[in-house]
UniProtKB/TrEMBL annotation:
<dbReference type="InterPro" id="IPR001126">
    <property type="entry name" value="UmuC"/>
</dbReference>
<dbReference type="InterPro" id="IPR043502">
    <property type="entry name" value="DNA/RNA_pol_sf"/>
</dbReference>
<dbReference type="InterPro" id="IPR043128">
    <property type="entry name" value="Rev_trsase/Diguanyl_cyclase"/>
</dbReference>
<feature type="domain" description="UmuC">
    <location>
        <begin position="21"/>
        <end position="72"/>
    </location>
</feature>
<dbReference type="GO" id="GO:0006281">
    <property type="term" value="P:DNA repair"/>
</dbReference>
<keyword id="KW-0227">DNA damage</keyword>
<comment type="similarity">
    <text>Belongs to the DNA polymerase type-Y family.</text>
</comment>
<protein>
    <submittedName>
        <fullName>Protein ImuB</fullName>
    </submittedName>
</protein>
<dbReference type="Pfam" id="PF00817">
    <property type="entry name" value="IMS"/>
</dbReference>
<dbReference type="InterPro" id="IPR050356">
    <property type="entry name" value="SulA_CellDiv_inhibitor"/>
</dbReference>
Length: 498
């Protein structure tokens, strides 16, 4: 598939924004000015000011000579860049690849996107109408190359949608400035009477390089599509993404659910073809007022089962605020993993046990957060803190079996906590211990079980563990740190038995 690009030119970017925010400025001549080399210089001017002969770069005193009552506002250096970035983020509803083109434009890679709006004509019309509605004066064009699109959007007097393969003809009648050349090069072309691109487009490259430098050749090759022109998207590209525009704004939960299910069906079919499964999903709704609504889900294992994924999203649909309506839905899978046919068979209706466990875990994670659910496997260590590790997925198998020679507590504290102990003889189990201000009188005790440090990992004291039961029947795993003949051995609680 050949690439297609859309460039948008905001003729009065910053002044249009001010007029939108301050309606009293609409239609009035005003400028943005800043100090430069000891004098005030016009940095941007409104359309009304431009009609009266004021231009960016003009000394403010000269501008006041043309319009004595000219309104002057302070310019902020980063105003235009911040605004363009915000507009680029807004345009992500139309394409996943959008870039800022300083000082007053955007570049969109729209390859494979326009058919969702019924073609490039309706696609371009929809974008321009939404930008012009609040008050931006914009021009735009679509072509096979960024250079051709940029040229036609600023200098073209033809249809803004250049058919595939027709960009070379579209460039012929445009002035050299349409190639984004530096002023000295343009001056030399002007002096030689080369007023249109057709005047030199077919000249030998060595002649153009000798007279005008390599920059002209580079820009010409970019516009013709002989070399690629990279752009820097404002947002990382998500490979697995599907979009669904709506003919009418959607405001109901039922409409949102229908859009979600359709997008899941499309995306899961693609994941099936490529042997992938979703681990994280993001469902976005672009409202007609420019606001973005989104919900996210995560799964314990790669999944491409539409029904299961829909149930996870369904838990959060109520948090979507459609406002005046959503006119574009986007489903992304930013995290995917390999998923074989054998793994997919686990989601068959006959495998009820797997369906129940996986579904429960994902729903709990979606409602309470992924960090609330943990699965542990035995690890090849006898030091208690290292004897278990957290599993990465539901299917991960343990390297060793759970040890059964010695009972272990159901709940193991991540770090032992200090307790106060009374024992009749130093090497005896405790008679009572105090934990978090509560006194526990011991009724039964079993032990000790000595566990040595793993000396190849760290040095330290041995531990003598006891299984003790208090008068209420609760059982604990406590230990003495160090040998009993130490002057003042310390005692700790490390776990709780069922």
């Amino acid at each position: 598939m050949s690439r297609r690009y859309l460039t948008i030119w905001f003729r009065h970017l910053t002044t249009d924004q001010l007029a939108i925010r301050k309606p009293e400025l609409k239609g009035e001549p005003f400028v943005l000015a800043a100090a430069e080399r000891g004098r005030m210089v016009v940095k941007a001017c409104s359309a009304a000011a431009m009609d009266k002969g004021i231009e960016a770069g003009m000394v403010l005193a000269d501008a006041r000579a043309l319009i004595p009552n000219l309104e002057v506002l302070d310019d902020h250096p980063l105003r235009g860049e911040k605004l363009l970035r915000a507009l680029a983020e807004w345009s992500l509803r139309y394409t996943p690849i959008a870039a800022v083109d300083l000082p007053d434009g955007l570049i969109l890679d729209i390859s494979g996107c326009a058919h969702l709006w019924g073609g490039e004509g309706p696609y371009l019309k929809d974008i321009l109408s939404k930008l012009r509605k609040p008050g931006y004066e914009v021009r735009a064009a679509i072509a096979d190359t960024i250079g051709a699109s940029w040229a036609v959007s600023r200098f073209g007097k033809i249809s803004p949608v250049i058919e595939p393969g027709a960009h070379i003809d579209a460039l012929q009648s445009l002035p050299p400035a349409a190639l984004r050349l530096e002023a000295p090069v343009l001056d030399r072309l002007q002096k030689l009477g080369l007023y249109q691109i057709r005047s030199f487009i077919n000249m030998p490259q060595r002649v153009l390089r000798r007279r005008f430098g390599q920059d002209l050749l580079n820009r010409l090759d970019q516009a013709l599509g002989l070399v690629s022109e990279p752009i820097t998207p404002i947002q990382a590209i998500v490979p697995y993404q599907e979009s669904l525009p709506s003919l009418e704004p959607i405001r109901t939960a039922t409409g949102i659910e229908i859009a979600l299910r359709k997008l899941l069906e499309i995306l899961c079919q693609r994941l099936f073809r490529e042997g992938k499964g979703m681990r994280k999903g993001v469902f976005k709704g672009c409202r007609i007022d420019g606001e973005l609504q989104q919900i996210e889900i995560g799964t314990n294992e790669p999944v491409r089962n539409v029904g299961h994924l829909f149930k996870l999203f369904e838990l959060k649909i109520a948090t979507i605020a459609p406002g005046l309506g959503i006119d574009l839905f986007v489903l992304e899978a930013p995290v995917v993993e390999e998923l074989s046919i054998q793994q997919e068979s686990l989601w068959a209706a006959s495998n009820q046990e797997h369906l129940a466990i996986a579904g429960l875990l994902d729903r709990l994670a979606g409602r309470f957060g992924a960090n609330t659910i943990h699965r542990y496997l035995p690890d090849q260590h006898h030091w208690p803190e290292r004897s278990i590790r957290e599993a990465k997925s539901l299917q991960e198998k343990p390297a060793i079996d759970w040890p059964e020679d010695q009972p272990r507590p159901l709940c193991l504290l991540p770090r032992p906590e200090r307790i106060q102990v009374t024992s009749p003889i130093p090497d005896y189990p405790p008679m009572l211990f105090i934990y978090k201000g509560t006194v526990h009188k011991i009724r039964k005790a079993d032990g000790p079980e000595r566990i040595e440090r793993e000396w190849w990992i760290e040095q330290g004291l041995v531990r003598d563990y006891y299984r003790v039961e208090d008068e209420q029947g609760a059982r604990y795993w406590v230990f003495r740190s160090g040998h009993y003949h130490d002057a003042e051995p310390e005692w700790f609680i490390h776990g709780f038995f069922a």
